[in-house]
Give the backbone structure.
Amino acid sequence: MSTTSPPLVALDWGTSALRGALLSAHGEVLQRRAFDVGIRGVPPGSHHALVQRHFGDWLQTPDARCLICGMAGSREGWVEAPYRACPTRLDALAEHITWIEPDRIGIVPGLSCERDGVPDVMRGEETQLLGALQLLGADTAWLVLPGTHSKWVEVCSGVVSTFATWMTGECYAVLREHTILARSLVAAPDVFDGASFDAGVVHALRSGSLLQSAFGVRAMALFGRVPLERRLSLLSGVVIGEEMRSRPSVQDSEVVIVGSDELGTRYQRALALCGVRSRCVGEDAAWRGLGAVAQAVWS
Amino acid sequence: MSTTSPPLVALDWGTSALRGALLSAHGEVLQRRAFDVGIRGVPPGSHHALVQRHFGDWLQTPDARCLICGMAGSREGWVEAPYRACPTRLDALAEHITWIEPDRIGIVPGLSCERDGVPDVMRGEETQLLGALQLLGADTAWLVLPGTHSKWVEVCSGVVSTFATWMTGECYAVLREHTILARSLVAAPDVFDGASFDAGVVHALRSGSLLQSAFGVRAMALFGRVPLERRLSLLSGVVIGEEMRSRPSVQDSEVVIVGSDELGTRYQRALALCGVRSRCVGEDAAWRGLGAVAQAVWS
């Protein structure tokens, strides 16, 4: 971004939260805000007012511009931003902004791909990918973006060829809350125990399916093999271990984990148990990615 | 059962239902009843009264006896009936009844086993196994008992060496109701479409994990690849297909499916797609099994 660029209001509007950062003309994060306002709960026609309410002061800065990534661009979001089909260059995102206000407020497209006739999609992660690679100064890497819907992506020379989704975070939550496992987890404290997490990963790697390994958690609790305070760590290990069991082969590559410190630590442990090297890039990847898109659009 | 045996009140009391059959001295099913009274909802101390209310007329028959299988024998049930550890002979079940009223009302034990240090359990299926083998006139078979928690069991010369559980039915329900898939399934009619079910099975067999294949159902719906009325069949195929992908190898054996006609048909289709022969034995296997236990106890 040139030194004459105006500030950027960078928004990541997902299913469960609206996060924002004010970026300087140099792409530095000046301020951050987060609100529990998922895109799904917003009535049609009220998105603009909501952004004004939470970020109006930032947008009042002369010439301020706004770029948005995430589910805001979905069919059930603010304005639908069509998916870019893979393979696609990450630097092509800037050429396919869906403008809400021309040249001022725009939505970054998500990506789609297809394997064996089955489609796959991401929204928001494409921007984090771009930011993570910029933070690393790389254009080729295997990346995993853990979360509700974990994504594995291979980027070669700035091109996303294909990617794949695992419903890891969401399945952890439903196993914990809505299945027979819930009965073994009543009042279980959510403290992290590394050894129990690792045992869960190993159990899942040996198993053939989460349908099977998850029941093991119930049976272990039933037989008093795992105390209450370790059960959530064990289950977390089982579900993340299932993702590891079925993840893409990365050969000798180091895997770049893009996400929160808490999830990053767990994925790094799980990958180490698979003999895979990894490094973590924090959640600021989204802001770096939106900054990079802005630079391409307005420089 | 000798012709002088009194009638048997056979009960299968599970997590979500209480089913009963009145068996003649010859083991014929004379009457059947079913109630939506899962064992979990019954307050401690009120089990006996509840059985009296629903089956009191049967139990009044002179010398009537009662055998119960299922979750009634769990720690949260009526009276805890300790698990029998595998390997165990199915005909040893009769030697390990937990008596509620001596020699009159008893609970059949469940089975437990252990693989790689992880325990597994069944309650109720052991009785269905016994009954299914009697119905087939066999003592050696590979069996699958589909349901909330699907069980795969190998029986050799009447001995259950080990078994394994898949949370197939339960995970189908939570994926359908509590994940992002629910948004694609609003008002989806629950009609069975064979081609969509088969497509789901094939998709799961090609995938490495349900965490991944289930997300494909969401993406296919998003891209208009599967009409609303076929989505539940597709999801059913994906989840049962995941069980097939990770099931035990049965070599050239025919698999015996023990369960309802509806589930039996689905499992038979899914197994055929894997090149595995199968045959179905109906839900009366539980009554036949309880009859066999009664015969061993009282003959």
Summary: The first strand of chain A starts at residue 8 and ends at 13. Helices of chain A lie at 47-59, 125-136, 168-178, 194-206, 210-222, 231-245, 261-273, 285-298.
